[in-house]
Amino acid sequence: MSTFLENQNWRYATKKFDATKKISAADLAFLKEAIRLSTSSYGLQPYKVFIVENPELRAKLVAASYGQAQVADASHLLVFANELNFGEAGIDQFASTICKTRELPLEAIQGYVDYMKGNITGLPEEVRNIWTSKQTYLALGNLLNAAAELKIDVTPMEGFIPAQVNEILGLDKLGLNASLLAPIGYRHEEDATQHYKKVRKSNDKLFITL
């Protein structure tokens, strides 16, 4: 029987990590693969994911995250960074990957390539940046579910100053912007939040059948 719902009830946004516990290389590889396999619009994955282990960088990022200690105390810190001004170059690179992976000539997918370019490149840059930022949330969803399966805690964070994170990690120079932070690791036994009852809307307040 599936343990998916059991895992969802187990997980929560961890407020205090046990800094002495580290995620194994095998489990980290599993989480990375779950992120890599995540769905994204057109399959483009217009983002990068930084795995920050360096303690000095982590300390600086705590200050850029309103002092949230999870950023430093978790086993690893993941920073989801969306691509800025995504356009033809990114689509062409994706098309090249399709051709190599599926052993196809470019002509076989040219219609799809043109379709993507027609839908994306004509949008204002600000709209494209919002769109690529939204894609990171899809990848985060896969991370949350995969981590819960391994009983690894994740704290999704929007509470940080993107400009400061960008500067600390040099994202500006890479044409990237920090969209989400996700400390991952193991909850501390003293984190009282783990014992709180989960609060969600009831079915009748959340779902509407038409």
Automatic annotation (TrEMBL):
Domain Nitroreductase span(s) in chain numbering: 10-186
Organism superkingdom: Bacteria
UniProt-listed InterPro entries: NfsB-like, Nitroreductase, Nitroreductase-like
Keywords: Flavoprotein, FMN, NADP, Oxidoreductase
Cofactor: FMN
Family: Belongs to the nitroreductase family.
Protein name per Swiss-Prot or TrEMBL: NAD(P)H-dependent oxidoreductase
Species of provenance: Flavobacterium ammoniigenes
